[in-house]
Input
Amino acid sequence: MISVKIWGTRGSLPVPGPHTVRYGGNTSCVSLQVEGEPLTILDAGTGIAALARSLGRVQNFKCNLLLGHLHWDHLIGLPFFFTADADDAHIQIYGPRGDQGLRRGIDTVMGPPGFPINSTELAGWWQFHDVTDDEFELGSLKVMSRQIRHRGPTLGFRIEHDGSTLAYISDHGPGAENRGPEADDLVPEGVVDLVRDADVLLHDAQHTPEQYERFRHFGHCTPGYAVKVAAAGNVKELLLFHHDPGRDDDAVGMMEELGRDAAKVEGFEGIVRAAMEGDTFNLGGGG
Ligand SMILES: [Zn+2]
Ligand SMILES: [Zn+2]
Output
């Protein structure tokens, strides 16, 4: 059984406040717990600070952190993940190799003058693993990574355990890198590999169709495109993710409606809902 908890759902910028209490104001972070295995964490947005508060100090803490890419909203919480910033902690980080390797990539985002320390000054044992289109095992968890269309090197992940599957594609847009409208309906083969028969897919749904027309080169997508991806993989449940920071709870609810309308058009019969910060669910094990 995989126990999943969502700590941050927001794209681009944390927006805490009374207008975002339902879907959340923290940026991307999701944790996966399998009994007997170290914690697996997807992205280190500001949601990871709440995860640290819930864990507290843990003796000999071990975790695997999968980073889809190194944009601020997915990395900014890393130095505030105090459970891992301890002398006896062991952290394995997996993320896109990019031009300069994952570790140097992280240190260009997290380091002076933008931040007082770089990764070498974190306490504990940190190991950095460059990833592209790969398959690897984290104990009894099977991980698949595929490069996806966004701005700069970006990965989506598929995590399987004992017949249950979670797919995570936080930032994904067919119009990234100035691709034209001919890209808008296409679900690339690598993306289908990630989502095929997944129990749950967390997928970018940042833009309304109107925003997408203006900002397609930002590398995000609409609820309609997220539904296309879910349908292409015969996914059971689609959680719309990476909510626009300009959107309050009611507006995120409207994106959920857009997704459900698109599902009818697409003939997608799985569940469609907007991801909520604090949401917990189990995959497999009858849960
Ligand atoms: Zn993002
Ligand atoms: Zn991004």
Observations:
- Residues 11-12, 71, 73-74, 170-171, 242 surround zinc ion (ligand 1) (CB under 6 Å).
- The chain has one domain: 2-283.
- The chain is about 20% helix and 25% strand.
